[in-house]
Specification:
single chain; alpha/beta; Rossmann fold; 23% strand; binds NADP nicotinamide-adenine-dinucleotide phosphate; 2 domains; eight-stranded mixed sheet
């Protein structure tokens, strides 16, 4: 790439720090500015990551001509507002998952980026990792025969804090939105690959779970039906931990991933029906997953693309619709 992409970071929380480090470790990006609701917090972040400019409001960073692309790392209820404002300001956008609180908001963001002709990707870093692309390719090639069933989960055990981001409805709390979005997007990717497509949408969504005292889902499961008889089981939780897994079962064997969402040292296991031991394939990347994500975005932007094949706009929209349906089903089942 001829010139490095100048990033502006909106927010100074947990994941914004990880992404800032990712930009520092990337091959294509550099940090141009950071914005926080508090100038003191922006300055502290700027010192930590050697960012040349710090702003005490998100609106200010959008006026900075040096900033080419923004990374939005606020809680999900504020994604739509700031993504639309960034699009209007002509900034390219990498916005944390879930892109919005629901599919209606997501459509508004996509409409804005289309109108202002800026890049947008929902920050599903696992979709940028070559391990994910490899699994989709193995399925497309028929390595495990015809795909019959998909199992995927993402569970965390967090203490109940009604005011915290994971439990407070005003901050977008709930397991489905925060982490259920990963298994949901994986099932659509795999069911799509099984049919020679990038992704497909489920024909039927059933859901069960627990709505906690603060009104958000603390754990949820879903059973999906896709075309060609493919079924999927999804599980997410913020109140108990469970082995995080992604498994695809086919007519000739299965694929098992031990670290589907943050691929690292362990790899992808392929178990053929007749073989005793699974075969492991490891894909190592020479930089962290957030650096890889920053590079994926920069390559798209520098080649004039407005969306990435890693997570296209329609893919995001389909996933948001699945999350809407999943939450509706859980709410109904919880009574
Ligand atoms: N891709 C991943 O690996 C990953 C991992 C974790 C989280 N996430 C996503 O990233 C987003 C943020 O998660 P996080 O864990 O970084 O949260 P966090 O640590 O609570 O940080 C969120 C930041 O958002 C800003 N913010 C703006 N308006 C806010 C408000 N009204 N209340 C609280 N904070 C507000 C704050 O920064 P300022 O005070 O500087 O304005 C705050 O530090 C969520 O959408 C989450 O789903 C993604």
């Amino acid at each position: 790439m001829k010139s490095k992409l100048n990033w502006g970071i909106l927010s100074t929380g947990n994941i914004a720090s990880k992404f800032a480090q990712g930009v520092l470790d990337s091959r294509t990006g550099q940090l141009a500015a950071v914005a926080s609701r508090s100038l003191a917090s922006a300055k502290k972040f700027a010192r930590q990551f050697k960012v040349p400019k710090a702003y005490g409001s998100y609106s200010e960073i959008l006026k900075d001509p040096k900033v080419e692309a923004v990374y939005i790392g606020t809680p999900h209820p504020f994604h739509a507002q700031w993504a639309i404002a960034a699009a209007k300001a002509g900034k390219h956008i990498l916005c944390e998952k879930p892109l919005a609180m629901n599919s209606v908001e997501a459509e508004k963001i996509i409409k804005a980026v289309k109108r202002h002709k800026v890049f947008l990707m929902e920050a599903f870093m696992y979709r940028c990792h070559p391990q994910t692309a490899m699994v989709a390719e193995l399925i497309r090639k028929g390595t495990i025969g015809k795909v019959r069933h998909i199992q995927a989960s993402f569970c965390l055990n967090r203490p109940y804090e009604p005011k915290g981001r994971l439990f407070n409805p005003k901050l977008g709390g709930g397991a489905i939105l925060d982490i259920g979005c990963y298994p949901a997007s994986f099932s659509r990717l795999v069911a799509g690959a099984a049919q020679g497509k990038t992704f497909v949408e489920p024909l039927q969504i059933e859901g069960r779970g627990r709505i906690g005292l603060s009104g958000v889902d603390e754990w949820s499961e879903a059973t999906l039906k896709f075309s060609r008889g493919i079924t999927a089981e999804l599980l997410c939780s913020v109140r108990f931990a469970e082995e995080t897994r992604a498994r695809v079962l086919g007519t000739k064997g299965s694929i098992f991933m031990t670290r589907p969402w943050r691929p690292a040292d362990s790899g992808v296991f392929i178990q053929k029906n007749q073989e005793e031991k699974p075969k492991e394939i490891r894909i190592k990347i020479n930089r962290g997953i957030y650096a890889w994500e920053a590079d994926t975005v920069a390559h798209c932007i520098r080649s004039g693309k407005l969306e990435s094949t890693a997570m296209s706009w329609n893919d995001t929209l389909g996933n948001m619709k699945l999350l809407d349906g999943w939450f509706r089903a859980v709410k109904k089942s919880a009574g």
